[in-house]
Structure formats: C-alpha cells, structure tokens
Design brief:
This protein is mainly alpha-helical and 501 residues long. It has one domain. It contains 21 helices and two strands. The protein has a two-stranded antiparallel ribbon with strand order 1-2. Strand 1 and strand 2 form a beta hairpin. Helix 11 (238-263) packs antiparallel against helix 15. The longest helix has 32 residues, at 320-351. It is globular, with a radius of gyration of 22 Å. The termini are far apart.
C-alpha cells in the first residue's frame, strides 16, 4: 500500500461512487459515502506520519508511463506544502458528508456521487507532478461543483452555477495556453520538476506568468475576479460552501506556489508589488463588504475575499515568514471558514433564513451551538490561542521585513475582521428578539433545537484543529520548513535568459 498510497487516496472516492450506482436506499447511500471518505481520511494519516520533514524532495512518488508519444506520465508525489492540503481535503470530505446527512433530501445518490468524484479530483490536483495530469484533475472538478450548486442549490442556483463555471473555465483555458507554451519551451515535457528547473526568457516568463496568474486569481478569487464567489456561496448547499471555502479557493494560491514562483521567478518578482497592492485592496474591500451584509453566507463569503488577500500578500513577500504564514493560513482558512459555513447550514436547517436580523436568540435557546459559533468566530478574527492568529502574525512578520507600512494595512484588515465577526456573532446570539413566540421558537415561530450528536461530532473535529494549530503550530509548520526554503531558493534565483522569445 505504501507504494501506491497517493493513488489509493485519490481513487478510493471514485470506487465509492461506483458502488453507489448499485444502491437505492438513501440511508445506505449516506453510510457508504461516509465510510468511503472516512477510510480515505484514515489513509491520509499515514501520509502525514510517514512524511520525512528533513527533506524538500517529493515523497510517496508514483511514476508510470502513460502517453509516451507526448512525454505524458502518471506522476504523483507530495512535498511539505502539498501534503498538508491532501490531508485537509480528505478531512473536509468527511465533514461534507456529515453536513449533508439531513440537508440533502432529493437525489441523494447523485449528490453523493458528485461529492465523491469532486473529492478525487481535488486530491489529484494537490498530488500531481505531471502538468497534463494536473490539468485533467483541475478540469474534472468543475462539473461536480457545477452540479452541486446547480441542482442542490438555492433559488438562483442555475445563474450562480453558470457564473462559477464560466469564470473558472475562462481561467482554465488561459492556463492551458500557458501549459502548451511551457511544453514546447522546455523540450516537450510536462514534468513539473523539469519545468521548474528550465530557464526561460524574461519575455516568455511575463506572458506565461500572466496566463497562469489569471487562472489562479479567478480560483482564489482575487480582486477584481471575485464576483462569482458570493453568488456561488449563497446558492450552494452547505457541503458545496465547505468545499468552495475549504479546498477550491486554496487551489489558486497553491498554483501560485507550485507554478508561478518556481517556474517564473523573474516575472513573479516583477509583478510582486502590483499583486501585493491588489491583495491589500482585497483585504480592506472584503472586510467592508462583509460588515455591510445581512445575509450570513454573504458575510462569510466576503470575509473569505479578505482572508485570501492576506494569503496572496504573504506568498508574494518572497520571505520565509510570509510564505509559511500564507501556507498555514490556507490550512487555517480551510478549517475555520468551513466551520462557519457548517454553523450557518445547521441553523438554516432549523429556521430557513440566513438574515442576521431574524436571529438574536442563539445564546439563550441554543447555547451549545452559540458556543461553537463563538469559538469559530474568534478563530476567524485571529484571536490569540486559535489557528487564525498564528497565520496572520507570521504574514505580519513577513510584511514588516519587506516594507514596514504594509503592517498598518494588515492591522486594518485584522481590525476589520474583528468588526464583522463580532457584528455577526452579536446579531446571532445577543441581538434584538422582539418577535419570538415562545422559548423554543425563532423570530418566525420555527421550532429550534440545539446541535445533535452528528453535528457535534463534525464541529468538535473542526475545533480540534482550531486549538491544535493555535497552541502547537510547529506540528504543522514543521512539514513545510524544508520545502519553503527550497521554494524561496527557486523563487529568488534568476531564470532570466535575455529578452527575446
């Protein structure tokens, strides 16, 4: 198994999806999906435990000839950066099934199959070392996500699904053009490690960097490519929002790390300041828009734009603190924002409203739920002792090293995060409650109840990582030290060969 551990992790969900084709009972379908992704997560644990943190080289490598005439190979491997996101993706897959247990009532089989196929594609993206294979996995996740939003989403689901699909497809087409250019420039190879070592002309780096940058910026999404995200989040079912926030957005920033900084270091440094400025705009803009929202999902969606601004800024600071802080914050955002969307989904199942003004009674009527929400809100705003604090402080250290005024902007973003999270929590837990009918209903008379056992298990699992990263960040940073050191060497070494094409 150790020789094919990555393949097992990637394709076990596909096997589970095939099994679901022959099952009719909805309860059995849910259990098969849960067991499949539970086993998948269990396989990701030895991936972490068996990882050698003393080297930056790729590990758990699998390589087999696939299409020799085009030099395409089935090539998998993880380093100290990607291994964390394979683990995160496998973990959130289990959370998605738990979140969908009661929320998805129609076409349960189709939903779980889409979720499992989506899981396989996302795991493949973080494990691929052949660019052609990477692109296949990258594109494969579009259809399941489109269906999850378009079939099981809210009233405007079709509009949001099409918008998501068109935005991401447009970026993917540009990436395909860049891939083809790289293939011929590097001597007809899709081997990503070879492509990282090849020297390109500065002009070539500029143009191909721009193609990849737009593809990844749409996925993040960076300002001004962000407009698809709030619509997608609002209309997506809870599991769809968890996937979007927890994994899909990280694929964009992972692309910057894996492709832009390593293959086009001169172009990356050339564009670093404009990208940092765009990131600063996203941090402030996202925070103000989040503060203006009444819809819970829109608030968290715009908060993601602000948080991802911290991450893109950290990446393009080109120093150890900035990049490690960005990677850790990618992991942290996947935990805390997924948890917030899960909390919203839990309360929405009871009340069928996401308007903050319809709440205000959570602390008195669902105190356990209110406690969970409070912890995740603190983590999101970066309270000391939680995971969000560690990532933000590392990025702040990195920013201070590069240009001290950046620190002021980051502090403004942190204050904005505190403002919108506290505004949300006050509105949910301690706001006005003038329409309540009795001690068991919400402001519209719906019967409400506290978290059940299934919901508590999912929320407790997420809380473990909030405090684990918060109090023992080195357990996670230790995986990335060597890989980030190698990444910085690649990103600061010139691969410039004249101006000609």
């Amino acid at each position: 198994m150790s020789g094919h551990l990555l393949s097992s992790i990637i394709f076990l969900p596909v096997l589970g999806a095939l099994v679901l084709l022959f099952i009719k009972d909805a309860r059995a379908i849910r259990w098969v999906a849960l067991v499949t992704l539970g086993v998948d997560f269990a396989l990701a644990i030895p991936l972490l435990k068996g990882f050698d943190v003393s080297t930056h080289g790729m590990q758990f490598v699998e390589r087999h000839a696939w299409i020799p005439s085009w030099n395409i190979t089935y090539y998998l491997g993880v380093d100290g950066i990607s291994v964390l996101f394979v683990f995160l993706t496998a973990f959130l897959g289990v959370i998605c099934v738990l979140a969908s247990w009661k929320a998805i009532e129609k076409k349960v089989k189709e939903f779980m199959i889409a979720l499992l196929i989506m899981q396989a594609a996302m795991l493949g993206v973080f494990s691929s070392l052949d660019m052609f294979l990477f692109y296949l996995f990258w594109e494969a996740m579009l259809i399941p996500m489109y269906l999850i939003i378009g079939v099981w989403g809210g009233p405007n689901r079709v509009y949001s699904a099409i918008k998501f699909f068109l935005y991401t497809l447009a970026g993917s087409i540009l990436m395909l053009v860049g891939m083809i250019a790289l293939y011929f420039a590097a001597g007809n190879t899709f081997d990503m490690l070879v492509l990282m070592e090849h020297k390109y002309t500065f002009a070539f780096q500029i143009w191909v960097f721009m193609a990849f940058f737009v593809a990844f910026a749409v996925k993040v999404p960076m300002f001004p490519f962000h407009t698809w995200l709030p619509d997608a989040h609002v209309e997506a079912p809870t599991a769809g929002s968890i996937i979007l926030a927890g994994v899909l957005l990280k694929m964009g920033t992972y692309g910057f790390l894996r492709f832009c900084l390593t293959m086009f270091p001169d172009a990356s440094r050339f564009f670093a300041t404009p990208i940092i400025v765009i990131s600063i705009v996203a941090i402030i803009y996202g925070a103000f828009l989040a503060l203006a929202q009444k819809d819970l999902k829109k608030l968290v969606a715009y908060s993601s734009i602000s948080h991802m601004g911290f991450i893109t800024m950290g990446i393009f600071l080109f120093n150890k603190n900035g990049i490690e802080g960005a990677i850790l914050q990618m992991f942290n955002h996947g935990i805390t924002t997924s948890a917030l969307f899960l909390c919203i989904g839990i309360i929405y199942e009871r009340t069928h409203t996401r308007d903050i003004g319809d709440y205000g009674w959570a602390a008195s009527r669902v105190p356990v739920y209110a406690t969970f929400l409070f912890i995740f809100a603190l983590a999101s705003l970066g309270f000391p002792g939680t995971n969000g604090f560690i990532g933000e402080i590392l990025i702040a250290f990195g920013a201070y090293e590069v240009y001290k005024p950046y620190l002021i902007v980051l502090l403004m973003g942190i204050l904005g995060g505190a403002a919108y999270m506290l505004y949300m929590y006050k509105g949910m837990a301690f706001g006005a409650d003038s329409h309540g009918h009795d001690g068991h209903g919400d402001s519209h008379g719906h019967k409400v109840w506290d978290v059940d056992f299934r919901e508590a298990i999912a929320l407790l699992a997420l809380i473990v990582f909030v405090f684990w990263v918060g109090f023992h960040p080195e357990d996670f940073l230790g995986y990335m030290h060597e890989s980030v050191g190698n990444l910085i060497n690649q990103a600061t070494a010139s691969k410039f060969e004249g101006l000609g094409l």
